């Protein structure tokens, strides 16, 4: 299971309405938008392997933020994005 959330650290609030896509190779596995709390609680159930998570950021500078992640069997993954107008960070949450 993969979940995510996006925080607008420039304004200090959750970022609602951010489109997030998950790819395995060129195959689109999931496509969703963050809710009012900036979260997607269930982006996708996935098999082990390499995936690419794409955040379509609503920022004056960042239009898209991507990360390639490696998924292991039997684990859940939370992949948050901290986003401000001119900086961002992705990390593995819990």
Summarize the structure.
The chain has 94 residues and is an all-beta fold. It is built from no helices and 10 strands.
Description:
It is built from no helices and ten strands. It has one domain (2-90): Transthyretin/hydroxyisourate hydrolase domain (Immunoglobulin-like), CATH 2.60.40. The model has no long low-confidence stretch (mean pLDDT 95). Helix content is 0%, strand content 56%. It is globular, with a radius of gyration of 12 Å.
Overall residue-averaged pLDDT value? 95
What class do helices, strands and sheet pairing give?
mainly beta
- Please give the alpha-carbon distance between the first and last residues: 12 Å
Please mark out the parts with pLDDT under 50 across 5 or more consecutive residues, or reply none: none
Q: What would CATH call the class?
A: Mainly Beta
CATH 4th-level superfamily: Transthyretin/hydroxyisourate hydrolase domain
Helical percentage = under 10%
- Give me the count of strands: 10
Q: Whole-number radius of gyration?
A: 12 Å
CATH topology: Immunoglobulin-like
Number of helices: 0
Order of helices and strands: EEEEEEEEEE
Strand content: over 45%
Which architecture would the CATH scheme give at its second level?
A: Sandwich
Basic shape: globular
**Count of structural domains:** 1
What is the makeup of the main sheet? Answer: 6 strands, mixed
């Amino acid at each position: 299971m993969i979940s995510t959330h996006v925080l607008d650290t420039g304004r200090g609030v959750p970022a609602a309405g951010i489109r997030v896509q998950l790819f395995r190779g060129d195959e689109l596995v999931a496509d969703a938008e963050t809710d009012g709390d900036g979260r997607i609680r269930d982006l996708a159930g996935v098999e082990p392997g390499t995936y690419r998570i794409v955040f379509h950021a609503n920022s004056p500078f960042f239009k898209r933020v991507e990360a390639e992640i490696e998924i292991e069997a039997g684990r859940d993954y939370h992949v948050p994005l901290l986003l401000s107008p001119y900086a961002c960070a992705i990390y593995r949450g819990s």
